[in-house]
Amino acid sequence: MVDPAPSGPVLGHPVPHRVLSPGFLAALIVAAGAVLMFGFQSPWGNLVLLAGVGLGLLASRPLGRDLGVIALGLLIVHTISVEADITWPRFFLMGAVLTSAVVIPYVVHRRLLRDDAIRYPRRTGQPWSRLEWAWLGFVLVTAWLVLPRYFIHSGAYQNWPAVQTPSEVGRLFVGVNAVGIWDELFFICMVFTLLHRHFPFWAANVVTSIIFVSFLWELGYRSWGPFLTIPFALVQAVVFTKSKSLPYTITVHLLFDLIVFLSIVHAHHPQWLPIFWY
């Protein structure tokens, strides 16, 4: 998406908000709305979400604008259940809805609000550092050690279908990885980026992680899953900020998701892929 930079946001430029401020309370209320919507499947989540946007507008119009863009994306996602389902109709429906939840807020933010904060940095021409390569290895080994234990001992693997045919295996693989890419486009490039315009790094990161993990809970990472997904969500914002590279951040996520896929398949069919120690 390469567009000329807008001349300036319709509702003005963002101003910093302290953690102890009505603005940050508004962001927390938006996050609480996401928890109610995705974590508890409560119809009150929509109202709480909109209340957070309203308070954000009272705190400052630029903050309310950005919270509104975040809420728009969340409401689009919430039009369907995001529980793992790889039947063909659900496979395409979920793909269409998640794509819309990224594209529509982006177009609204850039075209209607004339803002260009949502970006997808590539760091073209700069090779990954030794530390970045080492981090990929660390993620792969850590995921291999931890994820099979989580899925098998918690029983969370049952939240994903027990694939049997090559078609089902392929759809599960594509689905797991596609959602992983979407996570970075939506939660990091949009939610975290917009929040970080108004709040300190860790404040924005924590709020983003609350929203991120609530989505992952409905997706199937339940039981003690948040003890894994919360640190992962927090670290991904650090990786994105430090690397300034969306492709690298996605690569980290896809390595993690590769082990997620293998763990789920192995948990359902222990005789398949006997490559784990747990």
In round numbers, the mean pLDDT is 94
Name the helix and strand elements from N-terminus to C-terminus, one letter apiece. Answer: HHHHHHHHH
Helix/sheet category: mainly alpha
Low-confidence parts: none
The total tally of domains equals 1
- Rg over CA atoms, rounded to whole Å, is 19 Å
Counting DSSP E segments of at least 2 residues, the number of strands comes to: 0
Helix content: 55-70%
Largest sheet: none
Oligomeric form of this entry? single chain
Strand proportion, as a percent range, falls in: under 5%
Shape: globular
List the total number of helices.
Answer: 9
> For the terminal residues, how far apart are their CA atoms?
44 Å
Question: Can you describe this structure in just a few lines?
Answer:
The chain is an all-alpha fold.
Helix and strand arrangement:
Layout: H1 22-39, H2 44-59, H3 61-77, H4 88-112, H5 130-154, H6 166-196, H7 201-219, H8 226-243, H9 246-268
Helix pairs in contact: 1-2, 1-3, 1-7, 2-3, 3-4, 3-6, 4-6, 5-9, 6-7, 6-9, 7-8, 8-9
Q: Could you describe the 3D structure shown?
A:
It is globular and about 60 Å long. The longest helix has 31 residues. The model has no long low-confidence stretch (mean pLDDT 94). It has nine helices and no strands. Helix 3 packs antiparallel against helix 6, helix 4 runs parallel beside helix 6 and helix 6 runs antiparallel to helix 9. The protein is mainly α and 278 residues long. It is 69% helix and 0% strand. It has one domain.
